[in-house]
Structure formats: C-alpha cells, structure tokens
Design a protein that fits this description.
- With about 325 residues, the chain is α/β, with parallel strands linked by helices.
- It has 2 domains: about 170 residues, Thiolase/Chalcone synthase (Peroxisomal Thiolase, Chain A, domain 1, 3-Layer(aba) Sandwich); about 140 residues, Peroxisomal Thiolase, Chain A, domain 1.
- It contains 9 helices and 13 strands.
- Strands 1-7-6-4-5 form a 5-stranded mixed beta sheet, with helices on both faces.
- α2 crosses α3 and α6 runs parallel beside α7.
- The longest helix has 22 residues.
- It is globular and about 60 Å long.
- The structure holds acetyl coenzyme *A.
- The site of acetyl coenzyme *A has 24 residues, from α1, α5, α6 and β12.
Length: about 325
C-alpha cells in the first residue's frame, strides 16, 4: 500500500475585467493579429484595483472546498504558488488561511515563477506521503498585471491574472500506476539562464520592478525541456506518452504547447488549452486549466494527466497524476 495525494476538489477564480487584444492597439504598436498568431492569446483577465493575489486565491480555494464537500476545518495545510504575493510577508498562504477562517494547520508560499504550481504539487505530495498533512490545498495565484511594463509590447500583451486551486487528500492505495493521485514528479532549475526572464526589482533592491523577458530565447528552451521533463516523470511512474489522456501544460504560448505535444508524439486532442482566454497567468495557469478542463467535461476520474511548466530561473518540471 502507498499513501497517494488524490485530487478531491478543484476551483478557480478569474477577475471580472476582460481585456481583448484589440485594446492594446490604442496604446502600443501591436495588433490582435500579431498577438493571436505569435502566442495564441485572444484575451486575458486583469484584477480590479485593490484586488490582490490572496483575494483571488481564497476564492479559488473556497470553490475547491465546495467541490469536495469539505470545509476549511478539514484542511491541514495550504501551499500557494505565486511570484506576486500581496506583501513581502506574511505569505499569501497565511492570508488565504485567514480569509478561509482556518485557525489550525500550516501555510506557506512556493516561488518558482511559472513552474510554481508544479513545484507546489510536488511539495504537497511529499507532505502527504510522509504523513505531515492529510489534506493540502494547493493554489496557484498571480497578479502579473502589477509587474508589467505597459510600454513594452513584447511582454505586456502576454500575461493575465487569476487563481486556481486543487484540494489533495491522502489515500492508502495499491501502490501501482493504476492508482489515483500523484504518481511521480520531476523538478529542475538552471540558474545560468536567470537573465532570460526576470523582474528587475525586489525587496533587497528596494523596488517592485517590471518583468523582462528574452521571449525567443525562452521559447528555444521551452519545447525541449518541457517534453524532456514530462517524459522523465512518465518514465518514473512506469508509464509512457501512449498512456496519457491529457497534457495540461503551462499556458504561455500555443506554439510551445503544440511543439511539446508533437515532440511527445501526442495529438492536440489530448491537450487542455486555455491560453486563448487567460493569457499567461504564470503559476495560476495549470490549476486554472485543470479546473476549466474538468468543468468542460474534458478531464474525468481515472484519466492519466501530465502537467508541465517552465519559467523564470529557468525552473521547470512535470507532475504525472491520475485524476
Ligand atoms: N506586437 C507586434 N510586434 C511585436 C510584439 C507585439 N506585441 N512584440 C514583439 N514584437 C516584434 C519584435 O519587436 C520583433 O520585431 P523585430 O523582428 O523587428 O525585432 C518581432 O516581433 C519578433 O519578435 P520575437 O520575440 O522574435 O517573436 P517570437 O515569435 O519569438 O514571439 C513570444 C514572441 C510570443 C514572446 C515568444 O517568444 C514566446 O512565447 N516566448 C516564450 C514565453 C514563455 O514561455 N515564457 C515562460 C513562461 S513566463 C514566466 O515564467 C514568467
């Protein structure tokens, strides 16, 4: 028998304000056609003034609890993947804990930029496997609109805000790859590439800063590293791409998503795609896509899912789970 982290609830939240590509044409030398053809993005949501990462995270978590038929009292830990917390400290996770009215357990943030949700899932799975927590709320939540340089057309059209949450529960299962739950993970980073994607500010440099990206360089790394980490994680679970029902990738660019699926020998019919409606929501993009994919009726109990992501660091990784 093996203790697995099984998904028992999902939820997501998108801020009300929807910004279509065409809106950028008024202030930037860009076009709906360029953004669509280069990235696959058609629109994105931006948080309202005063709306924070923990506000959105708490809403997504509340929906995941409702989906599971549980309350905050049933949760032992909260892990929030974010690079855009409300404050330097306390963690966004403790703010979510307070907003959910949860007075027990523990909460912390994970920061691995766009790979953050994969890192958070891996941590939560280890907490459950080791018996340190039984139910863990894993949330990806971001307000990247706050770190955009609105004069930089090569980045500001690509990102959006939102939050998604999965509630994981420890269950004693057979210990085979037919089990539900997280079956394997693979995490990587390589700080030599730190200058390809970063924010040019932070606490110890006493500024907030703006996102800077050499998009075409990141692109070059993305397809190869994503296919490789996904295959490594599958291999660790004793599975192959042929066993996969759904790839649920980080939603940065449709061309990266298509390239990765092709490299893995999978059709786009096996990929959950939300990038057209959400843009790149960094650590929120995978839980948003999982929650939306379930709502659409794409993801069903028993399906084998591979999530994979790459972002600033570079940091990248994959998680194989059976829904
Ligand atoms: N509108 C019109 N033209 C533009 C725009 C725009 N919004 N942005 C850039 N251009 C121009 C460039 O200036 C350049 O012009 P030039 O040839 O005259 O110099 C031209 O378009 C081509 O630029 P590229 O950057 O080479 O375009 P590319 O096809 O690579 O697409 C993109 C750019 C969409 C950013 C792509 O490279 C990409 O998606 N990269 C990966 C992003 C990613 O996955 N990031 C990781 C996760 S994010 C995270 O961790 C926070």
């Amino acid at each position: 028998m093996t203790r697995r982290a099984v998904v028992v609830g999902t939820g997501h939240y998108l801020p009300k304000r929807v910004v279509e590509n065409a809106e950028f044409e008024a202030t930037l030398d860009t076009s709906d056609e360029w953004i669509r053809s280069r990235s696959g993005i058609e629109r994105r949501h931006f948080a309202a003034e005063g709306e924070t990462t923990s506000d959105m995270a708490a809403k997504a978590a509340t929906r995941a609890l409702a989906d599971a038929g549980l309350t905050a009292d049933d949760v032992d830990a909260i892990v929030v993947a974010t690079s855009t917390p409300d404050l330097t400290f306390p963690s966004a996770a403790t703010m979510v804990q307070s907003k959910l009215g949860m007075t027990r357990g523990f909460a912390f943030d994970v920061q691995a930029v766009c790979a953050g949700f994969v890192y958070a899932l891996s941590n939560a799975s280890a907490l459950i496997a080791s018996g340190q927590a039984n139910r863990v709320m894993v949330i990806g939540a971001e307000t990247f609109s706050r770190i955009m340089d609105w004069t930089d057309r090569s980045t500001c059209v690509l990102f959006g805000d939102g939050a998604g949450a999965l509630l994981l529960e420890g269950q004693e299962l057979a210990g085979t790859n037919k089990d539900r739950g997280i079956l394997s993970t693979d995490l990587n980073s390589d700080g030599r590439y730190k200058d390809l994607l970063y924010v040019d500010g932070g606490v110890s440099t006493q500024s907030t800063g703006h996102l800077r990206m050499q998009g075409n360089q990141v692109f070059r790394h993305a397809v190869e590293k994503l296919a490789s980490t996904a295959n490594t994680a599958l291999d660790r679970a004793g599975l192959s791409a042929d066993d996969v029902d759904w790839i649920v990738p980080h939603q940065a660019n449709i061309r990266i998503i298509q390239g990765t699926a092709k490299k893995m020998g999978l059709s786009m019919d096996n990929v959950v795609v939300t990038v057209q409606d959400h843009g790149n929501t960094s650590a929120a993009s995978i839980p948003l896509a999982l929650s939306v994919g379930k709502e659409r009726g794409q993801i069903k109990e028993g399906d084998l899912i591979v999530t994979e992501a790459i972002g600033g660091g570079l940091a990248w990784g994959a998680v194989v789970l059976r829904w």
